[in-house]
Amino acid sequence: MKTSSTNVATGPTKYVPLKGIQKIRMGKEVYRICYNYLMYNSFSDFLKDKQHLSIIQAENPDGDSLGSALALDYLLKDKEITLYCPVDIPKYLRYFDDWSRVTNEFDFNADGYIIVDTAAEILLSKLLDDANIKNRLLRSPIFVLDHHETEDDLSFSHQGLIQTLPACCDLIYKIAIEQKLLSDNPDSLDEEDHAREQKACEYIYYGIMSDTLGMVSPTVSADTYELMADLLRRGVKVAELDEHRRDFMKKSPRILDYKADLIKRVQYYLDGKLATVHITWDDISEYSDEYNPNILILEELRMVEGVEIAVAIKTYPDGKVTGKIRSSSKCPYSDKIAEYFGGGGHPFAAGFRTYDLSYDETVHELISAIYAIEKDQVAKSEEK
Ligand SMILES: [Mn+2]
């Protein structure tokens, strides 16, 4: 658990991760209730003395971060909320009806800031590079909500709830239930509140669907399905929502043509286990706004025989290189590969950013990283 709300000026704070506490042998149910109460109560405490809040997404918005921000916007009904993301919300995410509530103008007047879906400093570099924003964040109460396994490395002081879960929206749902931001009996609500809660539930649903690749990622548990069942009881209509989403996912013929180019560019290494593709700056400037090239190709590579690790590598004119990694259950160490480059993520999906490597050099480093990780794993299994 992070420190109390009074302790915001002492630098990064530590929390006890859920996994650690689970080791305490006590009645699981008693533990769950105490833990949830203490844990989620800290968020309510944070909200108490604040009227105007700004919710921040990192510079890689996705369905989960956007769902988290929009769900909170609906859940925190008595607060004045602004939504901020340093980059434009990509077109493929515009099936979230309220996406245009998110702006890239930083709100300097908020009483506090909530950062959703990341605790990695590198994903906030656009904010922190701006001296005015950085100053504001250093002097303001901040609360981080995240679900990643990578360690919290934020250099500014903050409180937070970071729990390993399939999605940040999953965490937000849990907080909303525990802290009564979602009512126990939705049927008793007046029409307006009912509609508001339902909208929050729809965004939570979209966020979880997005991060779990449609409820099939290895992080999904029976709890996740129970959560989703509750959303349906609260009025979420999955068929309608999915049709709405698919309408926005449709691609133009021009993008389909580009996808064919990308497919031709795929390179295979390690006997076909590793597949990489180079997304150049020309591609990014030509197509990124309309469709995320990573999504076009990574989904396809998941369906190629023998490919266990797929990496889309983007190169930028300023020397920046980013990698998006997806791996199968045979190679559950995407996060470790990303960490090799200073990035992070989950066992099956992760990302990194580095500088001053060419595409070829990045591939070379990737192969070294995979060798090193596998060698390490072999050594560990022999120790046992
Ligand atoms: Mn997420």
Number of strands: 12
Based on helices, strands and strand pairing, what is the structural class? Answer: alpha/beta
CATH fold-level topology of the largest domain:
inorganic pyrophosphatase (n-terminal core)
Helix content: 40-55%
The first-level CATH class of the largest domain is given as: Alpha Beta
Q: For the largest beta sheet, what order do the strands appear in spatially?
A: 3-2-1-4-5-6
- Give the name of the CATH architecture of the largest domain: Alpha-Beta Complex
H/E element order:
HHEHEEEHHEEHHHHHEEHHEEHEEH
The figure for the number of domains is 2
Largest sheet: 6 strands, parallel
Q: Could you list the spans in which at least 5 consecutive residues all have pLDDT below 50? A: 1-25
Overall pLDDT score: 89
Beta-strand residue percentage: 15-25%
Total helical elements: 14
Shape descriptor: globular
User: What would you report as the Rg, rounded to the nearest angstrom?
Assistant: 21 Å
Distance between the termini: 32 Å
Q: CATH superfamily membership of the largest domain, which one? A: inorganic pyrophosphatase (n-terminal core)
How would you explain this protein's 3D organization?
- The chain has 384 residues and is of the alpha/beta class.
- The model is unreliable at 1-25 (pLDDT under 50).
- β1 (52-57), α3 (63-75) and β2 form a beta-alpha-beta unit.
- It has 2 domains: 18-245, inorganic pyrophosphatase (n-terminal core), CATH 3.90.1640; 253-383, Diaminopimelate Epimerase, Chain A, domain 1, CATH 3.10.310.30.
- The strands form 2 sheets. A 6-stranded parallel β-sheet has the order 3-2-1-4-5-6. Strands 7-8-9-10-12-11 form a 6-stranded mixed β-sheet, sandwiched between helices.
- It is built from 14 helices and 12 strands.
- The radius of gyration is 21 Å and the shape is globular.
- The protein is 43% helix and 16% strand.
- Residues 64, 117, 147, 167-168, 211 line the site of manganese (II) ion.
- Manganese (II) ion (MN) is lined by residues 64, 117, 147, 167-168, 211.
